[in-house]
């Protein structure tokens, strides 16, 4: 027990509760969680309407997206290569998809939307007019059950493959192909689905990579569709007959179609497969136009994106490395240390954080409901374990919390050392740390939910003690800029912090006094309670006197620095005046 007290401080057991998790703390503060409601919840959506980006609509968009992907990949292949009969597997799947698209029309007509001003529109008339100007007609055409219509005309189940009606019916799924561009809208909403969100994090996909993947996916999808359409025109004069492939396997036919589409897209044009019929000529010209778009716009955009991104990053990295070279040369830093500096810059370059102004600009771009949600979800609602934020108003929470920087310290790392300038306040999210005195005593354990560094910041003094990580620790850092925002915009919170400083400072000195007293009692062999209490009182008085002396010395130093600064400004001002007088005299002499 004595060893643990020496290691972690006299109040270890009172501040550490291993069984208490963040979820337990959240349970204690349910009233606070309920009070921090998002503004979006204040916007009441009628019970008969769906929210466009929450709840059921998110999962429905996933179902619709999978249906559209099926339509994009399987439907063209069925139209070109497979002649299905009524009530086979393809017929059943087609009927299911028809039902999905019918339900989608109904759901869309009952889904609110957000207008250009960010307002949630729940009026059925406005929803209908917006849908009518967009996808309504195409969606309704795509919902027509052509298979059932044909079966009602020919109930015997016999399909006349080459008559006019059959050719029209085989086009039954083409209107659905017009819906494929709707996938682009669904991709924007896909991140709201937890599974896809985890995939984005797992593969660490940046915006530029997502853009490249999307472009190449569109190229592959277009290749697939145009290949199916190239085979679709089937009569005695088509390329299939000319190539003698009428009895070829399905895979060979599809592969040959892909080959033609790819050679046309790449503008190779070997000439072994050429268009002859009117349908083939029209399709080939259409594909050439599309190929021009892909080659001139899509690929150039990707190359520009990659080159500009890499070039910009390269310039910044080169500039930083050049600064290290100059700094090392001017200060005669050894080559080994210089190499470590360069290695650190290269390894951390891609992980650079936003500057403070960039972070402010980014957060101001978001709506207030989203900023509240960001603040609540940072590190699994860690905000609610800190006393400073538990009873604060939501504006303070969503303004300040996203501005805190996350830092990681491995066991043994110092967060700061005694005598450093005090600029930041720290909040322990996970892990443990402890204060270290000038005598290397470890006291006052810092657990998740504790914050420290505020005493010196408020008193505007240097660090009284060092803080060291006892294990791998995750910490929020509140910078000087954020503290300034609190002081100006949330003055009442800053006053609470100031008022709490004296009490926290007293507790800090008492913890150190207890640690010193226990150590002295252990060394002297006199560990009775009365002696320890006496030693605690003596040590506490010494610390108070020492702190007051340091404060007086620091105040004297501050006054001296202020006077020196005043003298410096006075001398500079007089020097400028003397230079002006000398120039005036020189001009008089010359004249």
TrEMBL record:
GO terms for molecular function: monoatomic ion channel activity. GO terms for cellular component: membrane. It is found in: Membrane. InterPro entries: cNMP-bd_dom, cNMP-bd_dom_sf, Ion_trans_dom, RmlC-like_jellyroll. It comes from the Eukaryota. Residues 388-486 form the Cyclic nucleotide-binding domain. The keyword Transmembrane applies. The keyword Transmembrane helix applies. CDD domains: CAP_ED. The chain crosses the membrane at residues 58-84, 90-113, 134-153, 210-232, 253-270, 282-306. It holds the Pfam family cNMP_binding. Keywords: Ion transport, Membrane, Transmembrane, Transmembrane helix, Transport. It is a multi-pass membrane protein. PANTHER family: CHROMOSOME UNDETERMINED SCAFFOLD_10, WHOLE GENOME SHOTGUN SEQUENCE, ION_TRANS DOMAIN-CONTAINING PROTEIN. This is Cyclic nucleotide-binding domain-containing protein. It comes from Stentor coeruleus.
